[in-house]
Amino acid sequence: MRALVTGGCGFIGSHLAEALLARGDRVTVVDDLSTGRLENVAHLVGRPDFRVAIETITDEAAMDRLVSACDIIYHLAAAVGVELIVSDPVRVIETNIVGSGAVLRVAARYRKRVVLASTSEVYGKSEAVPFGEDADRVLGPTTRSRWCYACSKAMDEFLALAYHKSEGLPVVVARLFNTVGPRQTGRYGMVVPRLVRQALAGQPLTVYGDGQQTRCFCHVADVVRALAGLGRAPDAVGEVFNVGSTEEVTIEALARRVLALTGSGSEIIYVPYDEAYEAGFEDMRRRVPDITKVGRCLGWRPRATLDDILRDVIAHEARASGHGQER
Ligand code: UDP
Fold first, then answer.
1. How far are the Cα atoms of 123, 130, 162, 240, 290 from residue 134, in angstroms, in the given order?
2. Which of 241, 271, 281, 316 could form a disulfide with 294 if both were Cys (CB 3.0 to 4.6 A apart)?
3. How are beta strands 205-208 and 248-250 bridged, if at all?
């Protein structure tokens, strides 16, 4: 199989490239290095079955060349991270709507299978946990920038499913819930690498709001195993799948776990959402996936526990800070 991974120099994309290579696929990653980093794939460069193309997905001519030369596209390139979403909504909408539009249009031209990485954000602030794939979505107003991400990714899903319905394009939608592991940068707001770095540096751990909001964190190795499986499963085409962990934890408990596992003496401070993001920021109180469907299709379920994940991220961050790596 010749796989094209958009966003392949990013956190999840680089892990997916590794997993696909490990099972014998040939892999081209395409990335514009806006949030992705070449360091993430440096260890793969030089392999005969691996290629990096520095291009943007909004460049349809470049995508035409790349898509025509592959058998399947794993479309992960997107503007992500709540901080980035709030600070640069234009970029989010441009990348996620215009870029994904180009990828899907070209995929349809060559009739190539697409695994579209979507997000649990599409469920918005719905309280109907655990979220089933067909559950209703509850989104806030357009005056709150956060919601542009959920809307842009939902449009990607609509477009992918529309291509499937009207042109028979083989698409699979994977809604990724909170995904964590080595190489994730905290620069765009992701809580686990941020708390781990703060703990290792002896700085206060910043818990936003009252810390009683919950999330389920899934190890990136588990997530890419699901993505790679969805790329092959015949029954997955035209379907939407949640991919995530069901081990629910409050952010306050997460911070305490990070302190225990790092042995850090840092304190926990509570930062109001308005200060952390923007005035009127709306967070979701609970986010838990129903993963019955992906379990049925692939026999998939996460293997790593929250403690496994935290140990991995702590080891990675301790190494990175020891070597003075860019963070
Ligand atoms: N969060 C926090 N401290 C931080 C960064 C994030 O308490 O330094 C909170 C954030 O408000 C959210 C949760 O942690 O409730 C998960 O945030 P993240 O940005 O990792 O992912 P989200 O689930 O919001 O997409």
1. 10, 11, 16, 9, 11
2. 241
3. unpaired
Residue 295 within a domain: no
Of the chain, the end-to-end C-alpha distance in Å amounts to: 34
pLDDT category of residue 327 using cuts at 50, 70 and 90: very low
Cα distance between residue 96 and residue 188, in whole Å = 16
**For ligand 1, atom 11: residue with the closest CA:** 208
Is position 145 within any domain? yes
CA of 163 to the centre of ligand 1 (A): 34
| Residue 104 located in a structural domain | yes
In this prediction, residue 278 carries a pLDDT of 83
**293 CA from centroid of ligand 1 (Å):** 26
Nearest one of 15, 6, 18, 109 to 58, comparing CA atoms = 6
Q: Where are the beta strands (DSSP E) in the chain?
A: 2-6, 26-31, 50-54, 72-75, 113-119, 171-176, 179-180, 205-208, 214-216, 218-219, 240-243, 248-250, 268-271
Mean pLDDT for the stretch of residues 197-211: 97
CATH number assigned to the domain comprising residue 107: 3.40.50.720
Domain count for the chain, please give it. 1
Q: If you ran DSSP here, which 8-state letter would residue 97 be given?
A: I
Lowest mean per-residue pLDDT among 24-33, 230-239, 318-327: 318-327
> Structural domain of residue 135, as residue ranges?
2-177+219-243
Ligand 1 midpoint to CA 184 (Å) = 14
278 part of a folded domain: no
Pocket of ligand 1 from Cβ distances under 6 Å: 82, 178, 189-191, 194, 206-208, 213, 215, 251, 283
For residue 139, give both structure tokens: 């989104």
Question: Tens digits of per-residue pLDDT, 129-166?
Answer: 999 999 999 999 999 888 999 999 999 999 999 999 99
Probe target for ligand 1 pocket from 11, 82, 195, 245, with the most ligand atoms within 8 Å of CB: 82
Contact 238, 171 (CB under 8 A): yes
Q: Out of 251, 271, 274, 277, give the residue to mutate to test ligand 1, the one with the largest number of ligand atoms within 8 Å of its CB.
A: 251
